[in-house]
Design goal:
Layout lengths: L7 E4 L14 E4 L8 H6 L4 E4 L13 H21 L4 E5 L25 H20 L3 E6 L2 E2 L12 H10 L13 E3 L1 E2 H13 L6 E5 L4 E3 H6 L1
Parallel strand pairs: 1-2, 3-4, 4-5, 5-9, 6-8
Antiparallel strand pairs: 7-10
Helix pairs in contact: 2-3
Length: 231
């Protein structure tokens, strides 16, 4: 829908595959946690940064603390620095529902709820959010923070046993394993198809109303875990 836009991609393939990259994308294989991405910003005039990179293994994060903070918090700090240095018009950061933690209570969750994460991944995401907000105050960086809800879609990685419940279940189904459900399965979740999320994500980077806003982005229909497993 936006043929005039040039897309520059950065990834380390820790959770994705090169064959999924559109050939029109100018791509760089970079680990944001350990490598400097400054030359990408030096090479291209970048208006909007969509920072989706993370290792989103929430349940595993307390056991890989150093990797978790390097991959999520330190990587984000590097991106923020480049956005400030190169006067990027807006940074869109995908955070996590994990930042709500103890403060969430029963859904639906509201963006003005206090951050109270209960694991290392949530702590890293909450810290990223706060660092972005401070960069906005101190350096005038414009930003929009998106908190996605259980995103799924074609070409997602189903081989990681710690990320994305639908992907985990698809792998178990394909390999004739039982689907793991914790508790009675009546917990309610909203699932979000990536196809439905693209336009809102685009607007997060371009719409003046999204400036310096935190936005929950997810499906509008709720399902129990049992219903999702049955489907």
């Amino acid at each position: 829908n936006h043929p005039d836009v040039e897309v520059i991609g950065v990834d380390d393939f820790s959770g994705g595959y090169q064959e999924n990259i559109n050939p029109s994308v100018k791509f760089y294989n970079i680990d944001l946690g350990t490598q400097n991405c400054g030359y990408v910003f030096d090479t291209h005039h970048i208006d909007i940064v969509y920072h989706f990179a993370a290792y989103a293994a929430e349940a595993l994060s307390p056991f890989i603390r150093q990797y978790n903070y390097t991959n999520n918090l330190l990587a984000t700090a590097g991106v923020i620095n480049q956005c400030i240095k190169h006067d990027v018009k807006r940074l869109v950061f995908t955070s996590s529902m994990g930042v709500y933690g103890f403060g969430a209570g029963e859904p639906p969750f509201h963006e003005d709820m206090a951050r109270a994460p209960i694991d290392s991944y949530g702590i890293a995401k909450a810290a990223c959010e706060q660092d972005i907000e401070v960069a906005g105050v101190q350096h005038g960086l414009d930003w929009c923070i998106i908190r996605p809800h259980n995103v799924f879609g074609a070409n997602q990685n189903i081989w990681d046993s710690y990320r994305n419940v639908l992907g985990i279940w698809m792998y178990k189904h394909l390999t004739d394993q039982p689907l793991t459900i914790f508790g009675d399965g009546n917990q309610i979740r909203a699932f979000s198809c990536i196809d439905d999320s693209l336009e809102p994500l685009w607007r997060a980077g371009t719409d003046p109303k999204a400036s310096k806003q935190i936005v929950n982005l997810g499906g509008i229909h709720e399902y129990t875990i049992n219903e999702a497993a049955h489907t």
